[in-house]
Design goal:
With 588 residues, this protein is of the alpha/beta class. Helices cover 36% and strands 18% of the residues. The chain has 4 domains: 214 residues, Rossmann fold (3-Layer(aba) Sandwich); 96 residues, 3-Layer(aba) Sandwich (Rossmann fold), CATH 3.40.50; 166 residues, Rossmann fold, CATH 3.40.50.970; 57 residues, Alpha-Beta Plaits. The chain has a 7-stranded mixed beta sheet with strand order 3-2-4-5-7-6-12, with helices on both faces. It has a 5-stranded parallel beta sheet with strand order 14-15-16-18-17, sandwiched between helices. A 4-stranded mixed beta sheet has the order 9-11-10-13, with helices on both faces. The structure holds thiamine diphosphate (TPP).
Length: 588
């Protein structure tokens, strides 16, 4: 039966239909919905891991135990899982293993713009790159077969447009899961140097076999048309090529590593001009040029950064001037902001006031870096807030500077990779204040469960990991609670943490209002008392605005947006903002 589904949904369905047994991943846009969809299938076991390395290692175990396994993550997640991947390529698999990785060209929702095709080359593993939802589905099914036939993990790469755009999928026949033998095979799975050396030779031989396979597999196909222009492409770029150059001949690569050299030579020899259209890095182009093939148009005309579209391709061919996006004058700026009544707002209001150096992390709280808060001064990768703050404190001490850094991290990020940084701070006698915003969810990626939320991906109640005892067990003596909705209390707690020598941890346990659907009555502004001083606007809440009142502009609250946290009211020195009677808005 035909379905109209996204690439992520198609991959989940393909996994279920391929007899998939075990899936594990960590949320990250644009990959997140894949595992959520696997959970919705209902008949396949899946789970959120605390980070991508754990996810990949868990599915390695699943494959060794004989079940077809899938791991899902965003591009930067592969950096976290790379240690496992780079040796998994040596051990190979028992049952098929697919690592799905979603790239984000254009950085719609990421801290960098990595091209995961580099990892396939680096790890010497096959990679498939679908161009629509049907291919995403089919490539999961083909991927398990390739993985098992060649005894290799396989990477399935999507980009944002493939993961999120919907298309028609006609599913194939469902395979009932067959769990294979759980075999003890020391030379295969124990990567001591002696076994590893032999395995490396096998990996190189496997790559040659995969190259032969690449020449004949229908995953790579030539669509011959006008021979004036030939284009080599893959993934979503194929769709843009079809739109921009409907008459061109195309070599569409589905298996993007390793490349089919003979097929590429044959194609290049049959067209007058050769163009390579690939988003981000010049991975095909470098390899094809190294084959001694003349490429007329590639990264000399196409961008290395951001997404490609049909206009950009036409411009590279000299058929149009290209479209330069010019911002429309006079539109109001709408930067991303904290949700109305998010607890992060109170915290950053105070951090901004105290003008401390904030070593930040990745999550909703990263918005604390934006104006008017401007209260986050470094953000690198998940978990870096704590370890970087530790390094800053050490150098500050050497330099004789008396300033203690503040690290801010969310619960999911703390579980992901903050724990080891804090362990180092305790062990190495560090001196930073660490604030853990434990909103009991992975907010930034849409509110996924995590080890602190008390529920699994499959909706089953489970052990809820408490952060305070964990922090104490890591060797931190000073651990206190914080209520970021109470500005005075927050300021006092932060000052105490800064004045106390050594590592100090504050934990805010206010739940995410969006994830837990917390609703409170709106704040009202007493127009008589409001002087229009705008102190309340410093909390950067989208429920607040200005309204003309006589010759003044006074503050108004949009009751449809306000969620009654009362943080703005605490900024008012003129008693002009009140919670609706009978409600204690400051304690959600
Ligand atoms: C290595 C890596 N994996 C995944 C992501 C995607 N991601 C961004 S923030 C985030 C977690 C945010 O949750 P939390 O720390 O609890 O903060 P919240 O958004 O709830 O405030 C995730 C999974 C990423 N940026 N990097």
């Amino acid at each position: 039966m035909k379905k109209i589904i996204s690439g992520n949904e198609a991959i989940a369905l393909g996994f279920g239909d391929s007899g998939g047994v075990f899936a594990s991943g960590y949320p990250g846009t644009p990959s997140t919905e894949t595992l959520e969809e696997v959970a919705r299938l209902g008949d396949v076991y899946c789970e959120w891991a605390p980070n991508e390395k754990v996810a990949l290692e868990s599915v390695i175990g699943g494959s060794i135990a004989g079940g077809r396994s899938l791991s899902t993550m965003k591009h930067v997640g592969v950096n976290v899982a790379a240690d496992a991947l780079l040796t998994l390529t040596y051990t190979g698999v028992n049952a098929g293993l697919i690592l799905m990785v979603s790239d984000d060209p254009g950085m719609h929702s990421s801290q960098n713009e990595q091209d995961s095709r580099n990892y396939a080359k680096f790890a010497k593993v096959p990679m498939l790159d679908p161009s629509d939802s049907q291919e995403a589905y089919d490539m999961v099914r083909a991927g398990f077969e390739i993985s098992e036939e060649f005894d290799t993990p396989l990477m399935l790469r999507t980009t944002t447009r493939i993961s999120h755009a919907k298309g028609v999928v006609v599913p194939g026949e469902k395979i009932t899961p067959k769990i294979g033998e759980w075999v003890k095979d020391v030379p295969k799975y124990v990567m001591l140097p002696n076994f590893g050396k032999l395995k490396h030779i096998e990996v190189e031989a496997r790559l040659l076999k995969l190259q032969e396979f690449a020449e004949t597999t229908p995953l790579n196909r030539i669509e011959m048309a006008d021979t004036e222009l030939g284009i080599i492409t893959s993934g979503v770029a194929y769709q843009h090529v079809r739109e921009a150059c409907p008459n061109a001949s195309i070599l569409k690569l589905g298996l993007v590593h390793p490349l089919p050299e003979q097929k590429i030579r044959e194609f290049a020899g049959s067209v007058k001009r050769l163009m390579i259209v690939e988003e981000m890095d010049a991975i095909f182009e470098e390899q094809i040029r190294a084959m001694g093939i003349d490429v007329e148009i590639g990264k000399n005309k196409l961008p290395l950064c951001g997404e490609i579209n049909a206009d950009i391709i036409r411009a590279a061919l000299g058929e149009s001037e290209g479209v330069v996006a010019t911002p429309v004058e006079g539109l109001p700026q709408r930067p991303p902001v904290f949700c109305p009544s998010c607890a992060h707002r109170g915290l950053f209001t105070i951090l901004s006031k105290l003008k401390v150096f904030v070593s930040g992390d990745i999550g909703c709280y990263t918005l604390g870096a934006l104006p008017p808060m401007g209260a986050m001064h470094s953000v690198i990768d998940m978990g870096a807030s704590i370890s970087a703050a530790h390094g800053m404190a050490k150098v500050n001490a050497i330099a004789g500077r008396d300033e203690k850094p503040v690290a801010v991290i969310g619960d999911s990020t703390f579980f992901h990779s903050g724990i080891t940084g804090l362990l180092s701070m305790a062990y190495n006698a560090g001196n930073a204040l660490v604030i853990i915003m434990d909103n009991r969810t992975t907010g930034m990626t849409g509110g996924q469960e995590n080890p602190g939320s008390g529920v699994t991906l499959q909706g089953v109640p489970t052990r809820q990991v408490e952060i305070a005892p964990l922090v104490k067990a890591l060797g931190i003596d000073n651990v206190a609670e914080l209520n970021a909705y109470d500005l005075k209390e927050t300021e006092a707690a932060i000052k105490k943490g800064l004045e106390t020598p050594g590592p100090y941890v504050l934990i805010d346990k206010n739940p995410c209002i969006l994830r837990y659907k917390i609703r409170k009555p709106a704040i009202k502004v007493d127009q008589e008392n409001c002087t229009g001083c705008r102190a309340c606007l410093k909390v950067a809440c989208m429920a607040l605005g200005l309204t003309a009142s006589g010759d003044k502009q006074k503050v108004r609250v949009d009751p449809n947006v306000c969620n009654g946290c009362g943080v703005c009211a605490q900024m008012c020195k003129f008693d002009a903002m009140h919670a609706i009677e009978g409600e204690n808005n400051a304690n959600l």
